[in-house]
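Encode chain A's predicted structure.
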Amino acid sequence: MTRARTIPCVLGLLVLTAAPPWVCARGRGETPVPEPEASPLAANGAGAESVLARADKHFQLGKAQLSAGRIAAARQEFDRAVDVLLEAPESLRAQREFRQQFEQLVEAIHRYDLAAASDERSQAPAFDKPPLEDIPEPTFPVDPSERDRVLEQIRATASQLPLEVNDDVLRYIRYFSTARGRKILIAGLRRAGRYRELIYRILDEEGLPRELIHLAQAESGFLPRAVSRKKATGMWQFMLFRGRQYGLARDKYVDERMDPEKATRAAARHLRDLYTQFGDWYLAMAAYNCGPGVVERAVERTGYADIWELRRRNVLPRETSNYIPIILAMIIMAKNPAAYGLEEVEPDPPVRYEAVEITAPTSLQLVADITGAPVELLRELNPALLTPVAPAGYSLRVPHGEGASVASVLRMIPPEGRGRWRMHRVAGGETLAEIARRYRARTVEIAALNRLDGAPPEPGTLLLVPTRTAPQTAFRRPNSRKAARSSATRRGGAPARTAAP
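Encoded structure for chain A:
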């Protein structure tokens, strides 16, 4: 007879089995479950027990902080719980039971984080909304002649990713041909031009099919600052803990999930790992959307390692069930533009920039003064930056051709002044007193810093202004439509090497 005992929710105090998952009830600390059989990890002895016990300790502390309303402190403890598992020895992390335990932890923390997010939503900044949330499940009748036409298109289409046609795919092709669906499709195809070169390069380097670019199209419409209802963030819609698993850091200054290049690299490696785990691209893509643990349990429960059978049996989340036919419809239509009236869609120009390694906190406004570019452009080139001051160690992207001059000027400014000082170009007839009033600075300090020796500044001269007021601590994020119309992605050139001031 199996004896029951009480174990902490999710981590289960070192219980590492493939038993059906349990769901944490918010506000409950413990859940009675049957005593499991010994797992393969038990042979690892104190090593595995120590790792999981430490992770569970931080998880329980996080729940306690959340119950007390201390959301930031709770997330710190949840982060530490994940870190403990990520820092476990490779021999331990390679074992299937340990991976399952990690997935259960991530899913549980995600549930708690969603509860916290609902309390914060009224104060949240205006991020972009992912298009995937606006794509319904269509109920159009399927035209048999359309199936034959699409099958013929696929036979003539070169694709590294397997392409299939069924009623679900056909319905989404039909949806993306409607006015509402076409608007979503075309917006994504246009924005894809900004990042296509970058994404193709990284997919090639990681040995993955180029068609996986359409995951980003479905997930975010290529909006680097997209944030979903579930708090998935960035162009590749990483949850916080999954992003950290693949090296995407987040603090109060930077969220690397919104860095197009770093997030694309992380997404490619995650997809490669998922394909290695499942051996099937459709299952790997589904796992990318809902988590490998969800897909793995669905396969184990039904005995079918087939995305269409899992969809038919309703054992995957509804969004995930729709995810694969949405992406396949996008791929088929993008590869056959003339057949769907898309040949006139003009992609946006690629984003071009140079990078400057920041060695001291540096105001974007100061960089804007140096380059003559608007601050809004710098924000768009640096979507991962959460404040108007780039922290030390950050690789700041500036307009192409401006990297060397920015680095040179910053080297001439004391590190302690880069976070608040300004550069000003003197206009005709402008006096030093007027400049000082404009920036709330002292005339004598401007004169001394720029060695004016009492002479009035000449028109066109660049002056360093030691302002006394610090910039605001956070961006007011722009409306995405206005951002899309800006000139950030319409400058020519090519990326350059990083320069350090």
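The chain is about 50% helix and 5% strand.
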